Amino acid sequence: QVKLVESGGGSVQAGGSLRLSCAVYGYTYSNPCLGWFVHRPVKEREGVASLNSDGNTRYADPVKGRFTISQDNAKNTLYLQMNSLRPEDTALYYCAARRLRIGSWSDFNLYNYWGQGTQVTVSS
């Protein structure tokens, strides 16, 4: 059974940094793909970043140069380092995993497994 558990959210002032962690349990696929998404009120989930098994990373335009996705295979943990945070980064952040690496990395419909989410609040 696949389980994803996020941590590391919190409140920070604009310009600050946070590192989100996602402990991944039971996820073993030959071509894994993991990602971070955000969910804001009255909006659909939006892709923030993704990481494939070959090490390729993808980022949404608003976070390029500020956020970094990485993985510690020994700890089965996915990270999202967020620097230079802005008030518009405020959202519920989810990590996600999918069985098949098809379609767009940012299409939340293609992800099969989700964590419970961790709140990030950035004040101005």
What does this entry look like structurally?
The chain has 124 residues and is mostly beta strands. 0% of the residues lie in helices and 50% in strands. It is built from no helices and 11 strands. The strands form 2 sheets. Strands 2, 4, 5, 6, 9, 10 and 11 form a 7-stranded mixed sheet that branches. A 4-stranded antiparallel sheet has the order 1-3-8-7, with no helix packed on it. The chain is globular, with a radius of gyration of 13 Å. The model has no long low-confidence stretch (mean pLDDT 94).
The helix/strand class is: mainly beta
Chain-averaged pLDDT: 94
Number of helices: 0
Please tally the β strands and state the result: 11
Shape: globular
Radius of gyration: 13 Å
Characterize the main sheet.
7 strands, mixed
Low-confidence stretches: none
Oligomeric organization of the protein chains: single chain
Kindly report how far apart the N and C termini lie.
41 Å
What portion of residues is helical? under 10%
Strand content: over 45%
Order of helices and strands: EEEEEEEEEEE
In short:
This protein has strands spanning 3-7, 10-13, 18-25, 33-39, 46-52, 57-59, 67-72, 77-82, 91-98, 113-114, 118-123. The chain is mainly beta and 124 residues long.
